[in-house]
Amino acid sequence: MMIESVNRKIAIGYLWNLVSKWITRFIGVISTLILIRILSPVDFGVATLANIVMALFVMLSEVGSDKYVIKSQNCTDELLNSAWSLNITLKFFCGVIIAILSSYIADFMHEPILRNVLLACSVIPFIGAFKNIGIVHFERELNYRPLTKLSVLVKLIVFPITIGLAIVLKNYWALMIGVLLSEMISVIGSYWIHPYRPRWSRQQWSKQWNFSKWMLLSTTTGYLRSRVDAFLLGRFLPVNAVGLFRVSQEFAWLPFSEMIAPATRSFYAGITQLIDNKPALTDQLTRYLALAYLLVVPSMFGIYALQDNIVLVVMGERWMAAAPVLGLLSFLMLSMPLNIALQNLLTHLDKLRYLVWMDVVMIVAIASSFFILYQQHITLLATYTLMRTVLMVLFIGLLLLVYKRVLCVPLSRVIPVMLLPVIPSAIMCTVLSEIKPMLASIPVINLLVLVVVGVLVFASLMGGLMALARKKVPEYDYLLGLITSAVLRHRWGTQ
Questions:
Q1: Where does 237-315 have alpha helices with state H?
Q2: Which percentage of the chain shows pLDDT scores above 90?
Q3: Do residues 266 and 9 make contact, with C-beta atoms less than 8 angstroms apart?
Q4: C-alpha closest to that of 114 among 45, 197, 164
Q5: Which of 134, 228, 297, 314 could pair with 421 as two cysteines, CB 3.0-4.6 Å apart?
Q6: Greater confidence, 68 or 353?
């Protein structure tokens, strides 16, 4: 009964996170669609480089206060106060370092305008550190409703302000001011939704540091792995290439960030209650992966097949150079469910050193391959993106190795849920490629027709495949049962 209760809470938490992500992302996508028609790739490039640098130093000061509190058995006021105070201290020094190094970073990136942008951004980490630590109680209880309301409210307030600033300023400052406002409103809202009022304390800093030292290193290397490509592109290629890469990345990863990532927070909070039950934990993990890949695999094949149509309709004709980049970047989603689930498991088990070593291997591989391309005087953004996509195979291999050797999770449970959707997705991709030349309507109609056809082809093929494989792949048997029961309940309710 306890496991069923935890699973139910995880599912409800996932739904609230999903609602939050969909609403905020919908607002964010609308905002981006408007902004890319007001601002240029250069503006997005400057904002991207500033955000990368700022986030890097934030990672260097990140001690995982929220996760430390969530995993603690006894959540006392002293624990909350110590975590809050330590976070403020580190974020203050983070902002100071960004301000001091702003000129050197601007010179290194060959972008003098970055100096003033980074100076302005240096206050953002310090402001964000004052967020009410008491809202962690919501996550410990798997109650994401208040957090959903807050995130949506912040987006609704910041969205029109950012658009208005873009119309007036017509440059990257609109984006950066929007980030600053978002952080300030989030801090104020955190005290509005939870009555807890933190106070300064240093009593448990040493205890938290025992957990946080690996968390700090892991978040830093993880961030470097995920952003070293854009950072090096800013060094090797013109700034507009970084803008193209960043915007393409945002749209290419929408299926994962909006459908799968919301489950992560409830997944982490839920496994804290299942960590001592290995069979139940393995079942929860593989079911999560099955759901993730059921959505991710067809999405990445679909984005690759429709890359030109998506860019033309969503981003506009002047962004057409982003089409091949968008298509290639979509394949990076293949590693994301494996990685995000592993991060949560290793964090709770205090085995973050394995994540650090994987990240270091990938950082060296990406940096080396990009440097080789640069030495060969290659300036085509799509070539760098292709190299980044190829290196994903190495990353997946490392992830599977850790699953098997460290967590002792049978790969016979993991690999089938990854590969089963590939066949119907590849067939769907082929069908879409054949149909595309036949359509002669306006671009938005063509895209809608292709999306509908793709969904119908994949759903029919995948449904049949799941029915055939349900005895050999229990995760898809579980999902098929959920889908069937949901359809029956819907029919029963409508009769």
A1: 239-252, 254-255, 262-271, 278-305, 307-310
A2: 20
A3: yes
A4: 45
A5: 297
A6: 353
pLDDT value for 431: 94
User: Averaged over 331-338, what is the pLDDT?
Assistant: 90
If you ran DSSP here, which 8-state letter would residue 400 be given?
H
- Residue 326 sits at φ, ψ, to 5 deg, of -60, -45
Query: With 0-12 CB in 10 A as exposed, 13-18 as middle and 19+ as buried, what is 2?
Result: exposed
User: Domain containing 78: what range?
Assistant: 1-206
Residue 371 is which amino acid?
F
Q: Quick one: average pLDDT of 296-314? A: 91
* Residue 25, pLDDT above cutoff 90: no
Q: Do the domain assignments include residue 371? A: yes
CB atoms within 10 A of CB 358: 23
- Hey, what are 247's tokens? 């915007």
- Total length of the chain: 495
Residues 447 and 312: their CA atoms lie apart, in Å, by 10
- 241 found inside a domain: no
CA distance 117 to 269: 37
| Neighbour count for residue 100 (Cβ, 10 Å) | 11
Whether the CB-CB separation of 247 and 322 falls below 8 Å is answered with yes
Same domain, 189 and 288: no
Picking from 179, 206, 233, the residue at the C-terminal end of a domain is: 206
Q: Both 442 and 342 in a single domain?
A: yes
For tokens 């990368």, the residue is: 52
Q: Which amino acid is at 118?
A: L
Can you tell me whether residue 388 is helix, strand or coil?
A: helix
188: Cβ contacts below 8 Å, ≥ 6 apart? none
Which of 173, 206, 239 is a domain's end point?
A: 206
- The mean pLDDT of the chain is 80
Q: Which of 38-42, 150-154, 301-305 has the highest mean pLDDT?
A: 301-305
Domain-embedded: residue 234: no
Residues whose CB falls within 8 Å of the CB of residue 164, separated by 6 or more in sequence, listed in order: none
Determine the average pLDDT of the residues in 9-33. 63
